[in-house]
Amino acid sequence: MNLHATPQMTAAEQALVDTYGQLFSDLPGDTAVVVRRDEAVEALKSGLPTRRVEAWHYTDLRRLLSAVPAFDPALQAKEQPALVSGATVLPVLSGRATSVPRVDGVAIQRVFDRLSDGSIAPQLFDGDAVDAIGAINTAFVGDGYALDIAEGAEIAKPIEVQNLHEGGQAHVRFAARAGRNSRATIVERQTGAGEALVSAVSHITVEDGADLTWIILQEQPDEATFLGQTNIEIGADAKLTLFFMNAGGRLVRQEVKVAVAGEGSEFVLRGVNLLAGETHCDVTMVLDHEAANTVSTEVIRNVVTDKAKGVFQGQIRVARDAQKTDAKMACNTLLLTDEGEFSAKPELEIFADDVACGHGATVTEIDQGHLFYLMARGIDEKTARGLLVRAFLAEVIEDLDNEALVEALEEKLTAWFATHG
Amino acid sequence: MPAVQETIEQVRNIDVDQYKYGFETLIETDKAPKGLNEDIIRLISAKKDEPEWMLEWRLEAFRRWKTMSEPTWARVSYPEIDFQDIHYYAAPKSTAGPTSLDEVDPELLRTYEKLGIPLKEQEILAGVRKQGEPSELDAIDGNGGRKVAVDAVFDSVSVVTTFKKELAAAGVIFCSISEAIREHPDLVRKYLGTVVPTSDNYYATLNTAVFTDGSFVYVPKGVRCPMELSTYFRINEKNTGQFERTLIIAEEGAYVSYLEGCTAPQRDENQLHAAVVELIALDDAEIKYSTVQNWYPGDKDGKGGIYNFVTKRGDCRGRNSKISWTQVETGSAITWKYPSCILRGDNSQGEFYSIAVSNGHQQIDSGTKMLHLGKNTVSRIISKGISAGKSNNTYRGQVSVHRKATNARNFTNCDSLLIGNDCGAHTVPYIEAKNATAKLEHEATTSKISEDQLFYVMQRGIPEEEAIALIVNGFVKEVIQELPMEFAVEAQKLIGISLEGSVG
User: Fold this and answer.
1) Model confidence over B105-133: pLDDT tens digits?
2) Lowest CB count within 10 Å: A114, A192, A291, A412, which one?
3) Distance in angstroms (rounded) separating the CA atoms of residues B453 and B464
């Protein structure tokens, strides 16, 4: 994992390896899964990635992951109400998928079963040297949900998968396949209480003509480490809208890997990072345009206060055959304190000539002109600043075309401002 | 622009692998044996008649270099370099301090003639006109009587330095670095290695150990250098690495504009070039550094060409100082070059204007670093990359605002143009802010020449190739404008030549 072999394992690396030794016999999985798990642990033994690994340039996981809390089977998280009323909730409580409700048009399976029969093995860690999240998750994952949306199905109500913990460790996986011409909205909640190491890996396949919306709402407690990874493949004339909000956690890494693989497909990413306290939050996206006539737009908005550190790495790669690609990416940051910091690395890697690709990145404080405009109308400075920051973020949320979702997410925004504003 | 007709002629006449400057000058050279060890370094130092401290500094660098490994992070690939298979010292034999042009080997003068650039320098060097006489070139650039002082570096050794007297009257020191080490050791010792430290990176460390020559410029307090200073690098001898070292110091309130150009003869083997350039601007000083680089890029199959691994860095050490880099990169098989600014003084400014053109099998990984350390510092980056053929062209840049750098401001614009479907254009910016008052803006685009634009031009009866050259010249105009006039004309011609064969 670490390209420069490190002679001695850190306490955290040692703890991960030891935990595997203790839990190994209780983890579900057939031979194929066990092979992958062993490989993952071998990768962890050779060290977590450091700054020297380009994909982890701003997040030195080896240094930042200083301690790993122990598994505690006695802890049991409780299900939470859904973000949007009427949604079907699929809870994973302290690492265990507890109920499998019936939803018309969707076949739902526990990942526990798919590990046991080995059918999920191809999605597990495959030896990629920089995939630390894949390795940690593969080593310990015990459960989660796999959703299979039938061809042509239109799922009216959102389905909400929840990963909830009460501390310790929680490693889950979600798999979703949206069949041809289907439509659905899925909400992924990541939250809990207490010191924890949480990993969540999702594989999303959007088949030809399907239209899927996926919302990730991450509200980990201040002591938690959250390692998230979303892998996406989009088929011809299909569309995926991914929205994420990071509003918690001590150490957060959210990876998004997208293959825009079918002709005429579209990927939309909207993200909001609310960074306060001593959070270190890294959003890293790798987006591959693999087919012709594909479109992608990404807008990431960040607010950084206190001593928080924010990172956005966004790489757009356009393959030789992906002519007529239209890819646009923007990352805008409001840096509100001198103790905070933000680093951006928006990359373009382009091999096709007939494309229109662009990215923009800005880091700035609140526009003095805008502030003056509001204050000249009798609004006090604190309120005026609050309004401007809120408007800066709300703009991104309002891009979602589901009113109930927009409202629920704006409420989350309000709640965050109440504690950190 | 009168150059255009000529450009068209050249573009029409040459093949992609017919490198215009691919000739070899047959003059005797004085070469050290191949390989690198402490004895070779002692030999270089002795040949240069250097003081003891200089030799010690070189040896220390060499010892460090042996513990370092080659950087691999850039988007370039090439077979492993055998650093023991290179001559680290090669000097033309007839250059024992010529005092007038008559003493210069006529072969050498013919070389300048063949180079054709920089046009005015060649005239002066060849003695066709005296300083102050009108030149027929003046009609072209409308800039009659503008003077350029040249320090030519021919295979590592500075051959002739013109205009020395006039510069001396202004108090400006412009000479080869070897001479500076002998004549002005205190100045050299005070500043050399303070911007690019010995252990900065693999190639810079190697350069510190083995550099053979380069230019030295010192502009004293309050002096505006009376002319453009120019240096000309050329790699001539087979299997030689060229390691120049340039040091420019602008004292309080001083101003200097420095031009650098380079070519190399056509060779099948790859030649190594690892230069270090250090600029130091004190309070209220300004340094403008312009480069046109057209080393041999290799033939149409990617064989041969120069490996250009260069460390260039400017230190805005004083308040209100300014350093501006302008580069036109059309040559070299591999370019690995990041002219940077350390904005240390309050209110200091850094600028980077770049055109990087790659064709054939060229690989360019170039960009800049702007490190904002002082208050109210401003930086501006304009980068234009053009890729054609089977080349790869990467912009890699860093803008970093440190904790105490209040009111830092950066604007970055990187545009890439792709011509043909076998090349690649990449953008890798690092944007880092640690201060709330920072204002950083970065934008990048990649596209091809729009069909509308091409149609518009061609509809007016202009052939496709000329139309593309016209549009490309428009694309890079922002940077061309920053170049001194002599270079601007040359640069436009070079871009046209570099893109030859990319259409169709």
Assistant:
1) 565 555 555 554 444 444 444 443 334 44
2) A412
3) 11
Contacts 24+ apart (CB under 8 A), B18-21: B19/B266, B19/B296, B19/B297, B19/B299, B20/B116, B20/B497, B21/B114, B21/B115, B21/B263, B21/B264, B21/B265, B21/B266, B21/B294, B21/B296
Domain spans, chain A: 73-366
CA–CA separation, A225 and A168 (whole Å): 10
CA dist., res. A140 & res. A362, Å (int)? 39
Segment A166-205, tens digit of pLDDT: 999 999 999 999 999 999 999 999 999 999 999 999 999 9
Is B424's Cβ below 8 Å from some Cβ in A?
Answer: yes
Compute φ and ψ for A317, nearest 5 degrees: -115, 130
Q: Which of A345, A347, A364 sits opposite B440 (nearest CB)?
A: A364
- How many residues appear in chain A? 421
**Contact across the interface for A348 and B416, Cβ inside 8 Å:** yes
Looking at the complex, report in whole angstroms how far the Cα of residue A204 sits from the nearest Cα belonging to chain B. Answer: 28
Cross-strand pairs, B310: B337
Task: With beta carbons less than 8 A apart as the criterion, state whether A300 and A312 touch.
Answer: yes
Q: Two tokens at B344?
A: 């240390």
Report ipTM (2 d.p.).
0.86
Cα pseudo-dihedral B157, B160, B163, B166, rounded to 10: 70
Candidates A416, A413, A408, A420; CA nearest to A394 is A413
For residue A52, give the DSSP letter.
Answer: T
Domain boundaries, chain B: 3-291+300-360+447-498
How far apart CA B308 and CA B317 sit, in angstroms, is 27
Write down the H helix ranges in A232-380: 368-375
The one-letter amino acid at A5:
A
pTM as predicted: 0.85
Give the contacts of B14 (CB within 8 A, at least 6 positions apart): B20, B497, B500
Q: Is B304 helix (H, G, I), strand (E, B) or coil?
A: coil
Which chain A residue has its CA at the smallest distance from B428's CA? A347
DSSP-based three-state secondary structure for B477: helix
Query: First vs last Cα of chain A: how many Å apart?
Result: 39
